[in-house]
Design a protein that fits this description.
heterodimer, A: 221 residues, mainly alpha, 7 helices, globular, B: 665 residues, two-stranded antiparallel ribbon
Chain lengths: 221, 665
Amino acid sequence: MNGFENDMAHTLSGVMLLMSFLLLYQRRIPGLIHAFAIQAALLGIAVSWQAVMQGEPHLFITALIVLLFKAAFIPIALLKLIQRLSVPQAVEPVMAIGRTMLFGIILCGLSLAVMQSSPQASALIVNEKLAMALAIVLLGFLIMIARQNAVAQVIGFMSIENGLVLAAVEAKGMPLIVEISVAFSVLVALAVFGLFMFHIKDRFDTLDTASLENVRGEELP
Amino acid sequence: MHLFAILFLVFLLATISVAALVPKWQRAIAPFSLATSATVFFWMIAFLIKDAAPQEISFPLGIPSIGMHFGLDGLSAFFLMILGLSGTVVSIYALSYFPHEKEPGRILPFFPAFIGAMMLVPLARDAFTFLLAWEAMSILSWALVMAHHKEHGTQHAGYVYLLMASFGTFCLIGAFALLTAASGGLSFSAMQGAKLSFGTASAVLVLALAGAGSKAGIVPLHVWLPLAHPAAPSPVSALMSGVMTKVAIYGFLRIAFGLLGASIWQWGALVLVIGAITAVLGVLQAMLQNDLKKLLAYSTVENVGLIFVGIGLSMTFHASGMEMAATLAMTAALLHAFNHSLFKSLLFLGAGRVLAATGTRDLDKLGGLMRGMPLTAWTFLIGAMAISALPPLNGFVSEWLLLQSLLMGPALPQALMKILLPITIVSVALAAALAAATFIKAFGITFLGRARSPEAAAAKEFKSPETTAMFLLAGLCILIGIIPQAVLSLISPAVSHMTGATIQHFAVSNLLFLVPKAAGSVSYSGIILLLLLGLGGVAAFALLRILASNKTRISPIWDCGTPDNDTLAQYTAGSFAQPIRRGIAAPLFDVREMVDMPPPSDMGTAHFHLHMQDLIWNRMYAPISPFILGLADRLNKMQHRPTRHYLMFMFTTLIILLAGIVLWK
């Protein structure tokens, strides 16, 4: 494994992490979807790069799945959905954008610290990449919490999955069957979320999930 | 292959509950659990007589890469034998009981599954499987307690039971967590070899005692037991009191002896003291009850106390290297566990028939049932005599062995034990005497005298599988009293598993005599005792016939001081207990009696008020409960939140755990 190949893999993960921050920063739904598509495309490239590096041709299939579904099909489907629902395209953040970004930086630091204190701390390079993958996962989580919009939550969920795939590919362990089933589960999630969006739009004329809080038949504290 | 077949049976028993969903198949439930339990029983007898080698088996189920481990050895087989026997007899009883149940759908699905879950506990060989079976047993018995959920007090009983069961399981989880941390494995075989420091091992023991003890009913964790056991339908009460407490005792033995090796005498002293307190407080409470099933439940607390006295004593002897004495004490404890499962089931089944015939468990509404229900009365009498430890019945043998082993205590080197032992001996003797008084009350007020209510006067009984079940149990009580040697040979594989020796090694135990050599030159022979009793009875009868005159005499009727023929003038449950209530129980239960006499000119009635409170409940549980409820209220606010908040909770937990990893290193 020579220096250039590693640097390349590193750069790709780094740019993916940057895309996560972009996701955190976006105020408009189409912007969110585009940023996600870019992140997914980068993931596809990163996976292909790993396939070359590790000499594992089955990773190309993984890359193909990622590029086809996550970088193309899901973003297009989501954009179409948004158009059909014709909702206001602004995302109302629950947490102020600046604060979210600051928090995101802290999470990156935390994931780096976690990975460096893990037992295999000697394999520094792998650990740094895993740290980035973990940061992508945590930032995806943060998006789901910091945004009340249904589309933003879907994007956050899928971005968590991006981080997981990145981590798994770098750990050289994930069998193809797992990847296929994960991709399938993401598709199912898309279907469920899509249906869910249709329904709340239908009823409340908005994609703001805060409107759901009043309809659970339970008294809120 | 043995073990696999038994596991298959037990799982079948646990899953047959599905049949209860189809009304046509509901009638098959009791015969099926009867057949399965009987198979397990005979199988275990065969296993114990052969003293077969332990078996282990594991399945790749449950937690990945760990799997579920099952096993069978002497200790497990002995408790499975108890389970099988009681399961069989209670199922026979259930044959005719279930069809009369108002809502069978509330009992039938859980009944076989409950027996199955109890059987799984002794078979489990890793912490995960053990806790799974333990929890299944708790939850299913809770569902059975709640079967008559509309009756007064049942919901409260279920609530307290659920809380205490969770507490017990938490303690057990803590014990297993400490063991796992020390041994690095969840399976019992890994835990056995673990090297524990004195502090850790003692913490495990205390947690196990609290966890298993709360299920068995040791004071002060017994509060749920007298609420929940009576609230359940009678066959289930019999199972819960007779058998589930034994499963709890098994759990304690497995951890204390199997996993920890019982190597420290202070543990034994702790168990001994708790057992003695449990025995005395349990029987005192039983004496004061006016509810037949509650009385029986408190008497269970007492017997569990006696069993724990035996276990604690055996632990002390074992840690002091006195293996013979340890074996004798453990044999006494296990024999008493077996005996208690027989007569307590019998008494609860009898109480169930009384309840079914009269519709009440209140002693002050019963009386005179011997005439209407002679079969129930006679079998109940045998059970009452056995539990009062009257020779030649089985209760006598085990309590006699227990006292013999207590009397060997002075040989112990520890100064503390020299103080504790006399107190324990006195407590056990006191408990035995009070138990006799309690069951004179239970039997006398229920079956003798005259009926205190029209329902009691009209009570009738019919021969049915219910009576068969009770006769079976009564017969076993007598049989084991006469030839206890037969059961001792079944106990020895279980005891040798723990103390490394069996009573056969040092006791003359032929068909006629039982001589625990360890205890010196004492001996017991049920047959000779029975012969002497029989001869004495015949002689007394003959003497009466010869000496007594049968001439007719005319004199005023001795009316027992009840000239106006009022049934209320008989002894009541409360008045029978009055001397003991005033003499012994007064300081423990804050007893106060008040009589409101009307002024001399007033023609109104006088009133008698009895004030009594359970100080354990008031001093220990009442102060904690507002705190726990407040905490629960606060936690409740974490529910009913927007989804985003749930995500936030998960996220925060994740962040805290990750930060923990960083800081730990």
